[in-house]
Amino acid sequence: MSNKIKVLIADDHHVVRRGLLFFLKTQRDIEIIGEATNGKEAVKLVSNLQPDVVLMDLSMPEMDGVMATKAIRETNGTVKIIILTSYADQDHVIPALRAGASGYQLKDIEPDDLVQTIRDVLKGESKLHPKVTSHVMAHLSTQNNHQHTKIDELTKREREVLNELAKGKSNKEIASALFITEKTVKTHISNILSKLQVSDRTQAAIYAVKNGYLENNKKGER
Q: Which of 49, 85, 190, 213 could potentially form a cystine with 208 if both were Cys, beta carbons 3.0 to 4.6 Å apart?
C-alpha cells in the first residue's frame, strides 16, 4: 500500500496544471491522482478518487473555488484544501477560509514551499501566504468588540491548546507539548471551535494570533 500523499489539482488553466504536475511528480512522497478544469469537476473527482489534498484555484468556470471548497468540505471532512490563486485581497481570502480551506497560497510561491505546505496541511497545520496574513488581520480588526471576549469562555487547558494550535502544531505535537493524548486534543479543539464560533483550525489559529495568545497564555487563566 502506498504511503504517498494523494493530490488532486483543480485549475482551469492547462499551463498551470502542467507546471504543477511537472514539479510535484518529482516528489517521492506525492502522487497526482487527478486533474479538474472547473469547480464542479473537482467536487466530483474528490468523491470518486478520495485525495488527501486538493490544490484549488479560485476563479474557475461552472463553479468557483470557494463554492467547490464548501461543497467538498460538506461531504468529505477529511480532505485538505489548499487555495492556490493569484488573489491576495480580503474579498477572496476570507470567503475561502470560511468555506473550509486549510491553506491559502499565491501562485508566486516557491515550488519547495508549496510542497512543504502540502505536507504541513496534511498534518493538520494551517498555512497562509505572508501576503495574505495582513488582509486577514484587517478583516478581524473590523469585527465587533464582543468577539474579543469569547476567549474568556475557554478553560485554562483549552487556552493552552489554542496557544499551541496557533503556532501551527499538529494534534500529535500539541499532545506531546501538553502531556495529554491526541484524543483529548481533538476534544479540546472541538470545544474551542464551538466557543469561538469558528469553523476550523485555520480560523481559530488566526483568531489567537490576532488577539495576542500566541506570545503567552497567561491572560485570563482560571
A: 213
Strands of the chain (E only): list them: 5-10, 30-36, 53-56, 80-85, 103-106, 127-128
| Same-domain pairing of 164 and 72 | no
pLDDT greater than 50 at residue 217: no
Distance of alpha carbon 209 from alpha carbon 139, whole angstroms: 13
Q: Give pLDDT, residue 143.
A: 55
- Compute the distance between CA of residue 58 and CA of residue 20 in angstroms, rounded to an integer: 16
Q: Is the pLDDT of residue 137 over 70?
A: no
C-alpha cell at 61: 468556470
Whole-number Å distance between alpha carbons of 18 and 62: 21
Query: 22 CB contacts (<8 Å, ≥6 apart)?
Result: none
The H or E element containing residue 69 is helix 65-75
Which one has a higher pLDDT value, 170 or 215? Answer: 170
The grid coordinates listed for 18 are 502542467
Residue 157: domain span: 144-210
Query: Which CATH number belongs to the domain containing residue 84 in this structure?
Result: 3.40.50.2300
Q: In 15-45, which positions are buried (b, 16+ CB within 10 angstroms) versus exposed (e)?
A: ebbeebeeebeebeebbbbbbbbbbbbbbeb
Output the pLDDT for position 126: 78
Please tell me whether residues 127 and 148 are part of one structural domain. no
For residue 158 the three cell numbers come to 483549552
- The average confidence (pLDDT) of the chain is 85
pLDDT band (50, 70, 90) for residue 83? very high
